[in-house]
Amino acid sequence: MAIYTITSITVPLPLNDEVLIAGEAIDAGEVVYQLASDEKAYLAFSGGTEAQAQAIGWATCSAAAGQPVSINRTQVMTINTGLSVTRLYFLSSTPGAMEEESDIATGDTEYKTLLATGLTATTLWPNVWPLMLTVP
How does DSSP classify residue 135? Predict the structure, then answer.
């Protein structure tokens, strides 16, 4: 199974980024969700609760717990990992990571959350959409 962990992320116009407080250590490029009870950002993953699978975007900078972290929700971004053009990428059961739909195995994830489409080998078009469908 191919888990995509982004270690370098560039957003051309970070003006629309949302800034949240990190509830745990978050690295640039990791997928996050916002916990309703404290409104902080945490690593999203598909194998936890429904709330943990409701990703909101990617961290554009690293942050320790209690520090501000900028979140990209909508802007096309350049990343360091090789992508497949026109492939759909979903939230992974690995916290903060994503994977192709074809890599989601039965029992591998609890909730399917569409994250993005690959535009080129290094550009990703975010389209976060929590489907909240469980994998049979």
Answer: P
